Amino acid sequence: MTSDKTNISYQAHIVEEYRSEESPYYLPVKDEIDIFHAAYQQKIPVLLKGPTGCGKTRFVEYMAHNMNRALIEKETPSADEGAALPLVTIACHEDLTSSDLVGRYLLEGEETVWMDGPLTRAVKVGAICYLDEVVEARKDTTVLIHPLTDHRRILPIEKRGELIEADDSFLLVVSYNPGYQSALKDMKQSTRQRFISMEFDYPPVDLEADVIAHESGVDDATANKLATLGEKARNLKEHGLQEGASTRLLIYAGKLIEKGIPARRACESAVVYSLTDDAVVQRSLNEVVTSIFE
Amino acid sequence: MTSDKTNISYQAHIVEEYRSEESPYYLPVKDEIDIFHAAYQQKIPVLLKGPTGCGKTRFVEYMAHNMNRALIEKETPSADEGAALPLVTIACHEDLTSSDLVGRYLLEGEETVWMDGPLTRAVKVGAICYLDEVVEARKDTTVLIHPLTDHRRILPIEKRGELIEADDSFLLVVSYNPGYQSALKDMKQSTRQRFISMEFDYPPVDLEADVIAHESGVDDATANKLATLGEKARNLKEHGLQEGASTRLLIYAGKLIEKGIPARRACESAVVYSLTDDAVVQRSLNEVVTSIFE
Amino acid sequence: MTSDKTNISYQAHIVEEYRSEESPYYLPVKDEIDIFHAAYQQKIPVLLKGPTGCGKTRFVEYMAHNMNRALIEKETPSADEGAALPLVTIACHEDLTSSDLVGRYLLEGEETVWMDGPLTRAVKVGAICYLDEVVEARKDTTVLIHPLTDHRRILPIEKRGELIEADDSFLLVVSYNPGYQSALKDMKQSTRQRFISMEFDYPPVDLEADVIAHESGVDDATANKLATLGEKARNLKEHGLQEGASTRLLIYAGKLIEKGIPARRACESAVVYSLTDDAVVQRSLNEVVTSIFE
Amino acid sequence: MTSDKTNISYQAHIVEEYRSEESPYYLPVKDEIDIFHAAYQQKIPVLLKGPTGCGKTRFVEYMAHNMNRALIEKETPSADEGAALPLVTIACHEDLTSSDLVGRYLLEGEETVWMDGPLTRAVKVGAICYLDEVVEARKDTTVLIHPLTDHRRILPIEKRGELIEADDSFLLVVSYNPGYQSALKDMKQSTRQRFISMEFDYPPVDLEADVIAHESGVDDATANKLATLGEKARNLKEHGLQEGASTRLLIYAGKLIEKGIPARRACESAVVYSLTDDAVVQRSLNEVVTSIFE
Amino acid sequence: MTSDKTNISYQAHIVEEYRSEESPYYLPVKDEIDIFHAAYQQKIPVLLKGPTGCGKTRFVEYMAHNMNRALIEKETPSADEGAALPLVTIACHEDLTSSDLVGRYLLEGEETVWMDGPLTRAVKVGAICYLDEVVEARKDTTVLIHPLTDHRRILPIEKRGELIEADDSFLLVVSYNPGYQSALKDMKQSTRQRFISMEFDYPPVDLEADVIAHESGVDDATANKLATLGEKARNLKEHGLQEGASTRLLIYAGKLIEKGIPARRACESAVVYSLTDDAVVQRSLNEVVTSIFE
Amino acid sequence: MTSDKTNISYQAHIVEEYRSEESPYYLPVKDEIDIFHAAYQQKIPVLLKGPTGCGKTRFVEYMAHNMNRALIEKETPSADEGAALPLVTIACHEDLTSSDLVGRYLLEGEETVWMDGPLTRAVKVGAICYLDEVVEARKDTTVLIHPLTDHRRILPIEKRGELIEADDSFLLVVSYNPGYQSALKDMKQSTRQRFISMEFDYPPVDLEADVIAHESGVDDATANKLATLGEKARNLKEHGLQEGASTRLLIYAGKLIEKGIPARRACESAVVYSLTDDAVVQRSLNEVVTSIFE
């Protein structure tokens, strides 16, 4: 009576073979692409810092999809030279164990088989491995990446007594949000100092309006108003808002508008209520909404 | 000597096939149905905020049961196009692990079989998946839904090294009660900002009286008195009551009255004692009961 | 060399088939039987509140043993229509897991068999399931009973991907002692508001004397003295006693007297020393004992 | 290369068959034997309270060894009617789980066998089960004994879905040391009020001297001096000593003296250093030793 | 690809058969050997108290190696009567479980075999079992040794339902460092009062110089200087040093000197830097070093 | 659908056979090589103390690679006498268990095989075993190395009941960063006093410039500027910087410069952002960068 016997068709992918079909929409702000390219060529791990929803994840997806593989001085070039680099994304959390990353033994029928974890897959196949919000992970996880981030570039698989050499095209990218850091969940200096760091922030209004229009389908005027709302909401951060509105929420508002929800209600639902439970701050935000969409 | 050998007949359902037989009784208050429809069409996850027993769960049940499937622009339409959407409800708690949601390997006789968890079932079958009181769940659970709530709409099943694409009709809905939030159990902004939000509150007296009469079978006059009791009890919230009386408790009182329990005793049992252990607040509440059912 | 090979005869029962042979001795105080009957007919879960040893457990045992099954409007009447309702009692504690209640897979010889937990058994067989001191249980346990206590009356068995519909004669009863509640171990409003509530207290002196005489075998005069001792000891509660003497302790004293222990020593052993380790409070209690059994 | 292949002869006993060969040496102080007999006849569980090493354990061993089985009104008398009652002793600690007490499934070769825990063995065979320092145990353990200590006298074995009826000659005895109790490790009233209680203290000097002489083999004069040392050391308790010297330590001192260690050094080693690390208190104690053994 | 297939030769011993080849070098300070002999004859467990590295472990090794087995009044003499007593040493720590001590079931190929833990081995073979820093162990471990330390001398193996009688030549020895004790990690009186106690301290300068010369190979003059350094460093304990220098560190300094490292540098490396990270205390210590080795 | 079936070629090594191909680039500062040699000859364990990235790990790699094996007075010389010593590096963390170090039983197909952990491998093969940041490990891990660090040089493998003698060429080296130590994560004196200690610090500017030029490929002038930046950044430590810049970060900056990133941006990315999130400290650091690379 298990669901395995029910007949449902669905799409499943092997982790390291999954690639988004079209290139993610990313508009560069500064020299971030050049620095990433240099780090990639020199095999230096990269740390992305910045607030929620400012585009860190999208940047990594864009870089993986458009990596100029000619940049890679590989010794043994792989078959799919011209294609995008595979990207293995792992959202870190406080219960993520090193086994979740490296792999574990599983019973399959009568056989015990070793199951590579996503990090091991990325290391072997030469993917970009992106550990999102890395400080959320348990300490054994951060220690695990130490030998991958020094000159050895090896991943120890202790349960098998093996050391895996990272493929030449492998790169480790991690992100974290400095606004979240507490004394308890800080990144240890011995981990931090294994990365070059790139600071991200929300895009300027005109760039963000382009993104909103592109992603939600609203017209440029509405997109501009939503981008302006984003900017003003971020300025409210000192007045009780824990964090600014992400580009994603502004796109959500656009999408609701596209389906006929009045702009003010759309912003209330997608931006105001999603940002805060505080009635006073909600009122301030709604005033901003009204002043823009009057 | 196990109970497996005893001969008891009982009704069992596969999780994603369970549907309530009749449409839940729900009376809309504002434009909540329109906004939900728009979010569903745009595949935007939805967050429902509001106090205990104000109707969030019933609203989701109603939406699932009456979803206008014409709204869904599906690529591969499923067989049961005209039927209600399946609804998979998961009550979150602090011991809910990601395995509970995604699935695990089980030994069945001599074979090891993979057992999809309720979230995986919902993702595959294209159900509405409702995570009730999502902030109660462990952090690994909230992180798990991140890739489901961005443009990728994928569910990683790490133990199998797979990524599952969500069916087009899948929608994630979560709820939480802002009154409960403590510093420890707040929703992280990086999770919050993946949803549009809808705020719920108790229904107005006349609407609630309709619900009470419909559900408990008492006459309109009694239903009105019970709804009035509910409203007044909620106003006592500042005077020592942790939370207001839910519609459910008022229906319970009606049901006891229907079976011949005197109204005051019914209210004492279903409302007063259920709301609080504090003798002083109990007295205030009983005075309210007496003033209504004199 | 295990005990399985030793030859000991003993009595074992399957959980849901165990019934006490004779009706528990219970003397009603108010309308508690009527309210319980009404709740049972309406399938409303019941919460019993009251201090240690005031008779909550005995009340449930009495109700299960004497339930007028004609009250039950069953769709599919079960075989043992005329008999007492089965009662499944579960003493909650902070290590009680949802698996303990719902069931787990066990290896039996070469086969893996599913073992229903006591709650699942009660749900299937249509028993009264009594969760004693429910706030002591872990949070996952309290969440587990949510779908059992709303209009769906279903028990999700996540490890099997099943939902079990409760038998029509099933009723959930929980108890707790408001005197124990701390901030940490309070019952969440979202759980509380799923029950009607009945408050219990120690019985009046004459009723308690009847119980003591019946249970311990002492004469009425002695029973009366013991009941008086109980009442006075409860009044000492403000003077350092954590909780009053339960009827059980008074019965113990009676039983020791029956076996020839002098009354004062019997009360000292069964009541004074059992209630407190505080020498000052012990002295006050002994003075009460002496004043009664002089 | 495991020790199973080495050839060592040793004595092993099945838990419930172990009996000490000779009757423990116990000298009654008051009416404790009568009260224990009465409780045993009435099947009332017994709680022993008192400081470390005052003789609680020895009392239980003595009662088990010398129980007048004629006192037991058994329905089905067991084979070894005339013998001592078996005694199952369990030292409680904070990691003691209910499985440790009740039993667990074990793999033995290719078979899975159920292994009764010591409490289950005691319940089935009708032993006295002695839970030493019961408040040290985890809460699930204390809850486990609730159904054993009310009128049902049953032990639920949840993993097997069974309820075991206690044999008629079974009695539960628990002990605890009120001096240790903290807010965290107090006995809950709902547990306490299931026992009659007996308070124990160190024996008077002459009685203790008899015990010391009997157990260590020293002459009466030395035994008297050691008993006097014990009494005086206990009076020092207010002056920095956490607890008084147990009879056992005084016997140890006697045994060292018997093997030729000078009395003062024997007392220093067995009493002074064992009682405290505090140099000041050690000096006070040594002065007491010197004043007695000058 | 596991290391089991690599071909490395190495020496492995069964725990209870391991004996150091030559007698440990130990110089008695007082009557410690007599007291230990008396305790051994009387089967009284022994507690050794003293600071880090003052020679407790070496004393036990010496006693085990040179035990006059004629002292043992055995009932069934073992084969190796004339040899040294086996010594089983267990370094306690906060994760040491009772299974680590007593044993556990292991799967070996297709069979489940019971694997005795080191304590069980010691109990069966009649070894001296030395629990080093016993207060570091978890509470279940300390409780485990209770029945071994009273008149019963039995070890309960709960997973097998067995009680093992200790061999006549078995003795339990535990150590702890009173300087470490905190409120949390104190030895419970109910455990303490099961041992006679022996206090150890660093040896006097001349004795320690003998040990240093013997163990490191330096000449007597250098050994004397190192012993003097040890004494002076211990006097600095009030001035910021957590603990004095152990004899071992002084031997290390001697060994470095033997290999040509200048005395001051050897003392800095082996004593100063090993004792403290505090720059001020390091300077004080270095001044002491300079004053001695000028 | 597991990755085991996908066809990826990658390099894997057995732990104890992995050796870096070329000698690590290390420039000695003082007499550290002599002291390490002396300790190695005398089989004295070594503790390296110093800040993040000052070269401790590189020193151990250099020593292992260039160990003069003639120094080793072995009893049974191994086959690869002339080669570098194998080096087994283990990064410690708070979830590292003793099983991770010593080994565990694993199911492989139908067989249970014992899998040596990296410490056991090092002990058997006679490697240098380097426990990096040893105080991060759990306490059971530090206790485990006690018998390896005294005269016995044995590793107890409790799960097999074995004691392994360390090969003559085995040496234990541990490191820790005194700047990190808190009261909770201090090294116990009973562990510390088993090692000689060597203090490390950042190299002087000229030496560090050599290393930077050698590792990053920049010209000497740039390398000098980067080394000067390192020195100045370390002097800022009192002004809000948690720790100084490691040599590694300076090399990263050089590598970015090598790939065409302007020096100031390279330093910002590799040094400033990697060292701190504090905007004020970032500004101070950037001023230092500007003053050097103007």
Q: Can you offer a commentary on this structure?
A:
- Chain A is α/β, with parallel strands linked by helices and 294 residues long.
- Chain A folds into two domains: 185 residues, Rossmann fold, CATH 3.40.50; 88 residues.
- Chain A is built from eleven helices and ten strands.
- In chain A, helix 8 runs antiparallel to helix 9 and helix 8 packs antiparallel against helix 11.
- The termini of chain A are far apart.
- At the A-B interface, strand 1, strand 4, helix 9 and helix 10 of A face helix 1, strand 4, strand 5, helix 4 and helix 5 of B.
Quick gist of this model?
The structure is a homohexamer of 294-residue chains. With 294 residues, chain A is an alpha/beta fold.
SSE ordering of chain A: EHEHEHEEHEHEEEHEHHHHH
Helix content of chain A: 25-40%
Q: List how many beta strands of chain A DSSP finds.
A: 10
Q: How many distinct domains of chain A?
A: 2
In whole angstroms, the N-to-C terminal distance of chain A is 57 Å
- Greatest interface: A-B, 61 and 67 residues
Q: What is the makeup of the main sheet of chain A?
A: 5 strands, parallel
* Uncertain ranges of chain A: 1-6, 73-77
CATH topology of the largest domain in chain A, what is it called? Rossmann fold
CATH architecture of the largest domain in chain A: 3-Layer(aba) Sandwich
